[in-house]
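Re: beginner question about structure tokens

> Can someone show what the tokenized structure looks like for a real chain? I only ever see the sequence side.

Sure, here's an example I had lying around. Input first:
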Amino acid sequence: MKHSTILGHSTLEVNRIGLGCMGMSEFYGSFNEEESITTLHKALDLGVNFFDTADMYGSEANEQLLGKAFKNHWDSLVLATKFGILRGPKGEFLGINGKPEYIRKACDQSLQNLGVDAIDLYYMHRQDPEVEIEEIVGTMADLVKEGKVKYLGLSEVAPETLRRAHAVHPITALQTEYSLWSREPEKELFKVCKELGITFVAYSPLGRGFLTGAIKSRADLEEGDFRLGNPRFTNEAIKENLRFVDVIDRIAQSRGATKAQVALAWLLSQNDEITAIPGTRKVHRLEENLGALEVELTADDLAVIQENAPSETFGERY
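And the corresponding structure tokens:
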């Protein structure tokens, strides 16, 4: 299995298992800054060089956390952040903004939060339905010309939107949810990414932790965990979706690997250019996830998963 890849239309070489940092500041229950910084530094020590954040994670707190942790390490990593989802002073969600003046303001704020002169990979987090993609990407391209951003990415867009965006300025990466229980990108997005030379970045590759087998009921989630309001984490959905975990476990036991490692190895085997960004706050989970790079699934393993995994997931993604 390839351990690294060059992000599309860039000179950035990244490891195929990066680190999603969202949960270090919000969403998945309690978190601890000291523990998160320890995990970030350990990731660098283990060769991870691709880190993902966004201005809305923790209402800028996540970018500030990475700015603190990586103050003297920027030369050894690739940092991706995003704009577009608005938060209020108390963390409330205020909608999506893709207007040019807002994009420029958001970029300047992210640069300040991170303490860097340029963002390696700048994503549109979600598209403002009131602004055409050509105008949004045109503004992002101006940021590249100004030296504030090196490369451009999009998140959660349709294939045709991706084509239109790429016609304005080369798109380096498309970030979309993808895992054994979220396989929608296989229908068309993979094909378009390959055709246009765009790297596919899979977020939530472990199904928001579900595919690790760690969540067997709602009681396994802390109070305040956003998954308690997610359609796939109702009591009925958990019961139905455990079938995904069962098929992963069959392979894990035969391979002497963990369920998380099999889930990630399956994902990376789907396409040589896929990069995954599983999130964790804990060093032992980080080490476990990276172990997936050493798990070589056979054609028979992949066939077992394909034939036995449920054809549909119980509950919508959001």
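Each token stands for a local structural state, so reading them left to right follows the chain. The two ends are 32 Å apart (CA to CA).
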